Amino acid sequence: MLVHPTGQAHPLVEPADFAGSRLPEEVAAHEPQLRAVFAWAGEYLGGPHPDLGRRGAVCPFTDTSLQRGLFYLSVRGGTPSDPDELAALLLHYRDWFAELEPRTGPGAQFKTILVLFPDLAEFGVVDRTQELLKAEYTRLGLMLGEFHPGPPQKAGLWNPAFRPLHSPVPLLAIRHMVPTDFPFLRDDDTTVAAYLQRFGRRVPTHLRDEVRAAADRLSTPAGS
Question: What are the DUF6875 domain coordinates in residue numbering (predicted)?
């Protein structure tokens, strides 16, 4: 378990912590929720799904993140009803994420923090918080993903009928943005611009036509 150097964020539970019969005392009150999300990550995110619409795992990075011990879970109790309140709670995790190793290099893409909100019954605040923070996080080279039992109504990229963001506990996930994230960013000029600034010379081959079209759209004045 990792403890924030100033105590401004709740502890981060590491994959190795789940090997024991009990989690550390500091997070024992939420052990059922933490174990449920840890199991969901390995079985659902790290595995295939018949409705996904492509081969491979739901999230291609999760299995490696777990194996490398870079998949961290934290819990925030309470029932924030306002996206600004939830955004403020995430601030310290966002900054802590930037300080955790690895900060650079290929291994950094597997670093992930999931912040669980087990007391939330109104899941819409999770969706609204992600929408509020999306542009800011992408400017910083980060992705913020929303998951909850609702589930969120965002459709799968390969199967529009699939709702891939289902989780047993409401949560927001922080990770580094990678070149293959463009499909999650293409519908907003702000996030497209952030992507182009970071990956303009490293666009995957299968995305180049789509990225080029988005870049052309940004360079065309409105109304012309």
Answer: 35-209
Picking from 29, 41, 28, the residue whose alpha carbon sits closest to that of residue 145 is 41
- β-strand partners of 175: 112, 143
What pLDDT, in 10s, does the model give residues 46-71? 999 999 999 999 999 999 999 999 99
User: Nearest 5°: CA angle at 38, between 140 and 135?
Assistant: 20
C-alpha 71, offset from chain centre = 11
d(CA 89, CA 96): 12
Which among 79, 102, 99 is positioned nearest to 89, based on CA atoms?
79
Retrieve residue 177's tokens.
């943005």
- Structure tokens given for 1: 């378990």
C-alpha to C-alpha distance for 168 and 39, rounded to whole angstroms: 10
- Coil, strand or helix: which one is 120? coil
Interval 25-42: pLDDT, tens: 999 999 999 999 999 999
Residue 7, CA distances (Å) to 16, 71, 84, 128 in order: 21, 20, 21, 27
pTM: 0.94
User: What's the gap between Cα 159 and its chain centre?
Assistant: 20
